[in-house]
Every structure is written in structure tokens, then in C-alpha cells.
TrEMBL record:
Originating species: Rhizobium laguerreae
Pfam families (UniProt xref): NAD_binding_2
6-phosphogluconate dehydrogenase NADP-binding domain location: 9-167
Protein name as catalogued: 3-hydroxyisobutyrate dehydrogenase-like beta-hydroxyacid dehydrogenase
Signal peptide segment: none
Domain of life: Bacteria
Any coiled-coil regions, as ranges: none
Amino acid sequence: MANPTQTIVAFIGLGVMGLPMAKRLLAGGFDVVATDLSADAMEAFVEADGRTAKNIVEVAPVTDFVITMLPNGQIVRDALLGDMGFAMSLRTDTLIIAMSSSAPLETRGLREDLKILGLDLIDAPVSGGARRAEDGSLAIMVGGAPAMIEKARPLLKAMGSTVTATGEIGSGHAAKALNNYVSAAGLQAACEDRS
């Protein structure tokens, strides 16, 4: 049974990164209700004392935060605003945090569409891989309104050791893309034959 004083977080996407991140939120004292297409992932989260919902709309009216950890921005948009989307069921003070990698312009467009419903969005992609997701030491790059970033900071600190505000909405995703490029360039250079 949930504690009525706990912050309620709807977490969408229990993949390789999402599941350990959701577990870190549980360890941080948040009441997390998660969903995923994988029954095994949902079962693993229940085994960690988390709650699950086949359709997150069941808890949308009482949710304080929504976190998406999905493969790309289009899937995030569909989850929130598509035919089966649940954004219209959220309270207007619910903050949505997009944590998977996405295109900055897509993120800005999504925020504009959510604003019509009275909702706000920040982008907070992560770096560090599954091991750092498990130990809560992810690096998190956050774009959005400063007040919204501060509102989300306790959740972000539960999942990451470094939380860096990068600027306006979409800038977190831009920083993540640049980070990926630099990492790939470094790997390419390390693999070159220097004989």
C-alpha cells in the first residue's frame, strides 16, 4: 500500500537502463508505478517491491512525475499523446521527464504540444550504461526551465551522481548527442592501426 505522503512517479520503460533506474527511485523513497511491454521486466520490478500497471492511465490522476525511458522520441510522443496516450489524464502540476535519447527539435515540439494541455516537460538523457544505472552514478544532462529542473532534482539525484543543467528544453538531448559523438570519435581513434 502506498504512503499518501510519498511522491508518486509513473515510470515508463523497464529496459536495460530503465529497470535499474526505477529501482534506484524506489531505494530513494519514491512510490514508483512502472509499466513496460515486457511481462518479465514488470515481474522483476514487482520483485524489487515496486508497483506496476498495464496501463499507466490508471494512476495518472495521482501522479506527481512521469519519467519516460523509451527507445526514441517518437515512442515517447506516442505514449503521451497517441491514441492510447495518457497525458490528458494527468494533473497540470505533473512534470514529465524524458530520459531516453531523442532529437532536440522533437523534444521542443513535444513540449509545445504538452503545454496546450497545461503540462511541462524537461529532457534529461543519461550517460554511463547499465552498471552506473544500477549503482545510481549516472551522469544526467537536463534541459528545460530552471524551476522545473529544480523540481525534478531529488528524483534525478536518486538516479545519478552528476546532474548538469544544460539550458533550454532540448539542450539535454543535444548534449547527449554530442557526448555520443565524442565517445564514438575517441573509440574510432583508439581502434586505428598505428603501425
